[in-house]
Design brief:
Chain lengths: 356, 363
């Protein structure tokens, strides 16, 4: 049926009756359902699975170990090429010192993030994880993503599963399931090192499941994708989550909704659209236990409002951001106290998680 | 009767209903109720105007009284300023060239200026840009002029009107309830006096807007009390064109230890205002204070006015507002279209100047 002829209300009733929604129905919701309808339905689903109204958050910090990135995708800002004067690469000791500063401020999770590059030895990555974990055995080290593993595999000639096993032994506690699968084929053209990677991405996810490394699944939008591309991505997450659930917990612990400042080629994502996508993610992927909103792009006000519209996690404090938009014109570092105020003000119960 | 049924049958909500709504943990259900009331009462237009602010002076006799203010300075304190009439005229001419239909002028309660200063600057600006509506002074300034220059409220308003003044701004209401008023601005004009100034203006045919400052020390009952007092006045006079909730910005104020309102609370205030204020057509979401994002979301919570392409706003920016000072018209239109609504450019008294149907590329 034509998306414009469908009744969003009926589709939402199906979602609330926990019946499967077809891709064309999902695309209809993405394109046409109002914020109020989507958020009310998604909020209702959250109340069913989380009647106590618990909302999780983590005190964490991202340590960027290198800003060098070979693909230079046009929507990504903040990375540089190898010969750029601003290029840097931290030694494992330097990364561990930054992590230790954050741990002294209460961080229990450290996220290691860097550009995609093929010139560093595999041992560097292992040493990075090992050094941080040895210095701070109590913190969860989250790091890398399937795209990085994919890029690294070629020069290092190890199987993906072996690489993840190595990272696990080094101390990796969680991984971000980012990168390749997102969104449109047109955008994939931009992902220069990452063409056609669904299978490889899946291999990384399965490797993480096998080695017991939990993941956060990102839902990145606002990069020119169509509504069908959005919902196809969410449906894939739902399928993958069902497939990789083995003996233990499901591989994706939460679904993080965010968009980036992607530069002038992509129109900015509005607050309404952000909240609509939080709700859509909850409705289409009910088998990922938590939906996390992010304050980094839209500010703490919008992230807080999402707690009644499908989200039940506020993500991490990201202590490296000292000028987050907090409330009513206030900017500063997001602290545990501010997180708890926002969650309580929304009538929810804050739960501080050590990691994912 | 449940609130939903009251909204559907256009029945007036009570104070108890208002408190229940303020305490609801279900934000989007509250939004849906307010949106329903908005659709039934005022339709799908979202109003904006092309305006500019001139804050003519920040020297204020109340600079130590209003704890929420980061703008006012005592006489002689560093950072104080008062524009000359020539400066104001030059600004007004520049804004008029940029196409504004309204200039919004408020300032501190200056201890030294004669009444002629105010009538002179109004007259000079009006002569220079006669097509522009001058929306000037809040009830606090009108009350101050009346006491300082020993004139009745009527006389003050008539003399300003004679000089070219068009309408009053809504500022200075703060929060009427004495329990709150005493804590945030003890010694400032009372809520009763604010209502008296507005009542007098309305009787003379001078329209106003009305406000409420929220997000500091108030409780739900104070919010409801404030809104119902405005509703009562509006029943009597019909002179309020819009209700504008003002979010408290703590930075640089004497209450900087308070965290300021959350997005949740901003939206709740808008929704409850739409539901309780059944006799005021425009509920304005002032994007300067609550961010363009929350302002856009508030369009689903009962708001139908988003202020305008404001220029040179100082009062909130002294209080640490991080929003841009000018919202480009294209951004404003896109924001309204994306919320599924129809932008309508208006003049000060809500005559529609132009309706912007969505273009194919914008949706």
């Amino acid at each position: 049926m034509n998306v414009n002829e469908m009744d969003c209300g009926e589709i939402l009733m199906k979602a609330l009756a926990e019946q499967r929604i077809r891709p064309d129905e999902a695309a209809c919701l993405s394109q046409r359902a109002s914020l109020l309808d989507l958020a009310a339905a998604a909020g209702e689903l959250v109340r069913r699975v989380n009647p106590a109204g618990e909302v999780g958050y983590t005190v964490n910090r991202t340590v960027v170990y290198s800003n060098v990135c070979d693909p230079q995708c046009p929507y990504c800002r903040g990375t540089v090429t190898r010969d750029d004067p601003r290029a840097f690469t931290l030694t494992p000791e330097e990364a561990a010192s930054r992590a230790a500063e954050a741990a002294a401020q209460g961080a229990t999770q450290i996220i290691l993030q860097g550009g995609h590059r093929t010139d560093l030895p595999w041992e560097y990555y292992l040493e990075l994880v090992r050094t941080v974990k040895e210095r701070l055995p109590q913190v969860q080290v989250m790091g890398f993503s399937p795209t990085e593993i994919t890029v690294l595999r070629f020069p290092h000639e190890k199987s993906i599963c072996q690489m993840i096993g190595d990272l696990k032994v080094a101390g990796l506690g969680a991984m971000w399931a980012g990168g390749a699968p997102s969104l449109s084929s047109r955008i994939l053209e931009y992902r220069r090192l990452l063409k056609g990677p669904w299978e490889t991405w899946l291999e990384v996810v399965q490797g993480c499941a096998k080695h017991g490394i939990p993941m956060v699944a990102p839902f990145v939008f606002g990069l020119g994708e169509t509504h069908h591309e959005r919902v196809n991505y969410l449906f894939r997450l739902r399928e993958v989550q069902a497939v990789t659930t083995g003996d233990g917990a499901p591989v994706f612990r939460s679904l993080a909704i965010f968009n980036l400042d992607a530069g002038p080629d992509f129109p900015p994502v509005s607050g309404q659209e952000y909240l609509r996508m939080v709700a859509l993610a909850r409705l289409l992927v009910p088998n990922i236990p938590h939906v996390a909103s992010s304050f980094l792009y839209h500010g703490a006000k919008v992230a807080q409002v999402s707690l009644d519209g499908g989200a039940d996690d506020m993500g991490g404090t990201q202590l490296e951001f000292d000028r987050a938009e907090l409330a009513a014109g206030r900017v500063g570092a997001m602290t545990a106290a501010e997180m708890e105020r926002l969650i309580r003000d929304a009538g929810r119960v804050p739960v501080r998680r050590a990691g994912i | 009767m449940p609130v939903y049924e009251k909204v559907m049958s256009d029945e007036r909500l009570t104070a108890e209903d208002g408190i229940k709504l303020m305490e609801s943990p279900n934000l989007f259900a509250l939004g849906a109720l307010a949106d329903l009331a908005r659709q039934r009462r005022v339709g799908d237009y979202v109003y904006f105007n092309n305006n500019a602010h001139i804050n003519y002076s920040n020297i204020c006799a109340l600079s130590k009284v209003c704890k929420f203010c980061a703008f006012g300075k005592a006489h002689g304190e560093p950072g104080g300023y008062t524009y000359t009439i020539d400066q104001m005229v030059a600004k007004a001419q520049a804004y008029a060239r940029a196409g504004v239909t309204e200039i919004h002028m408020v300032g501190g309660l200056h201890p030294d200026m004669p009444f002629s200063f105010y009538t002179d600057f109004i007259r000079a600006i009006k002569e220079a840009v006669p097509q522009v509506h001058l929306k000037c002074f809040s009830a606090v300034e009108i009350d101050y002029f009346s006491r300082k220059f020993r004139m009745s409220l009527e006389e003050v308003l008539l003399r300003l009107r004679e000089a070219g003044h068009g309408s009053l701004t809504g500022g200075g209401a703060e929060m009427f309830h004495p329990e709150v008023h005493d804590r945030i601005c003890r010694g400032k004009m009372s809520g009763e006096r604010y209502l008296e100034v507005h009542r007098t203006a309305h009787r003379l045919g001078i329209p106003t807007t009305c406000t409420m400052m929220y997000g500091h020390v108030e409780e739900p009952r104070h919010v409801v009390d404030h809104m119902l007092k405005l509703r009562e006045l509006q029943d009597e006079t019909g002179g309020e064109n819009a209700f504008i909730p003002l979010a408290f910005h703590p930075t640089n104020t004497a209450m900087a230890d308070l965290p300021g309102p959350t997005g949740w609370y901003d939206l709740k205030i808008i929704a409850v205002a739409r539901l309780l204020l059944d006799n005021i057509k425009a509920i304005k979401s002032y994007w300067i204070m609550i961010s363009p994002r929350i302002a856009q979301i508030s369009l689903s919570f009962g708001a139908n006015d988003i202020d305008g392409t404001v220029r040179e706003e100082k009062i909130y920016h002294f209080a640490g507002a991080t929003t841009p000072m000018l919202q480009e018209k294209e951004d404003l239109l896109r924001l309204i279209w994306e919320a599924g609504r129809i932008p309508a450019e208006r003049d000060t008294v809500y005559n529609v100047l132009k309706v912007y149907e969505p273009t194919a590329s914008a949706v």
